[in-house]
Amino acid sequence: MDRTQGQPEPVERPATAAVPAVTAPAPPATASAAPAPAPAGPAVARVVTLTAGDFTLTVNPVDGSEIEPRRPGTGGSAPAKRDAAGRAARDTAARPPVLPGAATRATLLLAREEERERLVRLLGRGRSVRLTGPAGSGRSSLLDAVAADCTRLAPDGVIRLSGYGHQQPGELLHALYAAVYEASRERPERTQLLARVRDIGAIVLLDDLEMGGAALDELLRATPECAYLLAATPDTRAPSDDSHLEEMFLGGLGGADCVQLLEAGIGRALTEEETAWAGDLRFASEGLPLRFVQAAALLRQRDERNLSSAGDEDEEPGVFEERPRDAAVIPLPTLAEGAAPAELLASRVSESARAALRIACALGGELPHHAHLPALVGDTHADAAVAELLGCGLITPVGTRYRLAAGVARQLEEAGYGDTAAEEARTAARHYAWWTGHASVTPERVAAEADAVLAALAGADVVAAVLLARTAAPAFAASRHWEAWERVLRSGAEAARKAGEVAEQAYFHHELGVLALCEGRLDRARAELEASIGLKGALADKRGTVAGRRALALVADREKAGVEVSPPLRLEPPAVAPASAPAAGTTPAAEAVTTVLPVAGSSAAPVTPVPPVTPVVPVIGRSEAPTTLTEVFEEAFPLNPKPAPPVVPAAAGPTRAPRRQPLRKPALLAAGALTVVALGTVMALAMSGSDDPGTPAGGDGPAASSTPTPGASAPGVPGTSGNDPAQDPGTPAPDATDPGSPESAQTPDPNQPPRPPSRKPVTPSPSQKPSPDGPKPPSPDPSPTPPAPTPTSTQPDPTPTATATPASPTATS
Hints:
Layout: E1 48-52, E2 55-59, E3 66-69, H1 84-94, H2 113-124, E4 129-132, H3 139-149, E5 158-162, H4 170-180, E6 186-187, H5 190-197, E7 203-207, H6 214-222, E8 227-232, E9 246-249, H7 255-266, H8 272-285, H9 289-305, H10 310-314, H11 335-339, H12 342-346, H13 351-362, E10 366-367, H14 373-377, H15 385-391, E11 395-398, E12 401-404, H16 408-414, H17 421-436, H18 443-448, H19 450-459, H20 462-478, H21 482-499, H22 502-518, H23 522-538, H24 542-560, H25 588-592, E13 596-597, E14 605-606, E15 616-617, H26 629-636, E16 642-643, H27 665-687, H28 742-745, H29 809-812
Parallel strand pairs: 1-6, 4-8, 4-9, 5-7, 7-8
Antiparallel strand pairs: 1-2, 2-3, 10-12, 11-12, 13-14, 15-16
């Protein structure tokens, strides 16, 4: 029996945190004794085994959940669907519970017949409709009426779901799957879930929708055989243009409908004063039905206080008592009180109902189940307060539970009902910590109370939060309500960190890693499991460390086996255009490169083409695809390039003369010194050239020498500057006394004054340019060869020769 009826309850045997064995039984608790706070660990070792995709999950509240690969031949097949009786039982369980106490008045559905018929007609055709209306417009009542008309339209019947608190379609799809299939110990992975919900053909009534856009499109695409009736407020995100939803807006009631709703709420006809007041209230509240349900409660309370019932009318004063009736007359509420009636209504309800309102304000508007109110309030009859609050319009049903109506929480907090929120949340957290760990409480009951448990967890202190999260997390895991399981684990890990509970923190991280592994989030699973292993290693918890390493091994196996990753970036080399045949008279190098260098005194002048450069050909042709980033870069940019095949020159066209072999190392030193001397002489003579075009440069001017020893020349090559090629052995040396020879032109005339140097640039011929390799020796091949065609120069030879003088000792060395 219920603990509030004064009967003892069966008490389970507690289990320690390290040993799950059963200990000695504890003495039974009595009704007068308050429930003792739960210990640091869970109150009972309630082990549940689930099938999660390819894994078998064992929920162990003591040591943490264990996960292992699913055995072959177990699970994987689609379970059977519920029959008509099963769907009826499921629909009854999805509705709010029957409240104790006096029966509440049924809310009339006025002026909604046209909307009701249109919704049934659209749903029967398989169309999905989005019903939009402000809070308090009667959307839930209209959904109840439509559900009664659509019971036989779909093969899987009518399914009622609540979208309150769901921003993603994942949990809604799992709730739809659990409502149609009989799978009490299975939570399919995403691929299996999408494959099975595609076969569901039902009319889904989704109240309190909070998502839109891409998330809503994903929900509709996942269930193409379902027709949806989505009830949402105007501030909810709108669906996308591709959703193809029918839109319907639900507005307020008319004046006559508002008066009829008031008369049905108070059970009598309205007076003229009350009718005028109802008209003003309709104008202020835009005709919302919720405001007139609350206004009817205000008029009922006013009638009770004015003693205007039929029984009081029969009571007449005595014959000898000539005093008039002294009845307290309470006027009608003001228009402001009618528009915001929460404070006035709460002041006229029972004390237990006001205590329940304080608890609801502390829990963010969530009202606990009426079975918890006697323990939370401290009154054995406090469970009747829910019906009282529902009749006043202060709470509304949301799925299988109740919460404060729209705008009531703000009005009560302004009236001072939120002053004790911290104390109320701490009391609720300790109560739920005891209740979620009780052996008689099934995981499904804990899942139905998930919102109140999460609200208590958010408002409790760190000690109570750790205690509640430790006992509620296994229950949420076993009930397959994994969104609440993850929220509890994260809140518990944060509270354990603040409280300094290292062991509890390790437990929460381990559970988060197991949850992420079941959902396929391998990066998150690895991070959480490594954190848990580190904390358990600091505590020297060998059993917990082994369990964490087993789960971490499964993460590594999943990463190596079937998880698809994005391919690495392939850096392909640029495509090389095919080489075309060279034209006649040109070389491939001349076709590929055309270099034009600017020359002083002209715009551009062609020069000798640059010799071809050996291109780098990347090494491509790997037998297997690269697996690391190093191999990718090595394939695109090889370290050892493969040279391109040699290019065969064309047969036609001029050929270049063969290059002469450089001197050996002993002669290079002397050639370098002579080159410096010759370059200085050439520059000095060029600066002192003659203006007469017929006269050689520097013919009349004094000879300039860069060394004190005149007439230095290359050994064995008299009459040259050291940079010109050596003459043939059969050619006689020029005589210095010959007046026409260049040597005689270098002799200065003492009777003629020197001329100023000319600034006209003189370009030496290609054959007389200084070579960086020093003087060239004669060709060793004595066979006559045809001379190569060389361009002729129209300019005079500007290179002077040194004067024939006796060689100095330094030059001959």
